[in-house]
Amino acid sequence: KMIVKILFVCSGNTCRSPMAEYLFKDILRDYNNMNIEVISAGIFAIDESEPSFYSVEVMKEKGIDISSHRSRRLNRKLIEDSSFIFTMTDEQVELLRKMYPEFSYKIFKLASEDIEDPFGESIEKYREVRDKIEKGVKDILKNIYVRVEK
Length: 150
Prior knowledge:
The protein has 150 residues and is an alpha/beta fold. The protein is built from 5 helices and 4 strands; from the N terminus they run βαβααβαβα. The protein has helices at 16-28, 53-60, 76-81, 90-99, 123-149, and strands at residues 4-10, 36-42, 84-87, 107-109. Strands 2-1-3-4 form a 4-stranded parallel sheet, with helices on both faces.
C-alpha cells in the first residue's frame, strides 16, 4: 500500500512545525487505516534542540505531549522522501522552491495566511499559532483523506 509522507517545515523545528506534526498525528487517530507518516524539520534548525517551553504548554492544553520532540534540520533526503511539504509562510515556500526547484510541485503553505513564529512571544501568541496550525492540519487531512479514499 502506498504511504503518504507529510513533512511540516518551519525555521527552528521547536515551535510551529512540531505543533503541526503532533496535532496531525493526534487527529490522524480518528482516521482508521491511513497510511500516512508525518515528521517535521526546520530550515535553520540545530539538531536535537528541545521544543520551546510554551509550545509544550499549549499542546498540553490539548492533551498532547510534545516534550520528547527533538529538532531536526531540513535536508535534501527529507524533501525527496516526502509526498507533501507544508511550510508556515510564503517566504518559506519561496525559499524551499529556490533550494529544491525540482521538488517545488510538492511544497505548499499550511494555511491561507502566514503563521508567524511565536518564539519569544507570550503564551497567548502560542495558543493563537497552535489554533491556526490545527485548522490548517484539519484542512489538509480532509483533502488527503478524500484523495486516498478514491
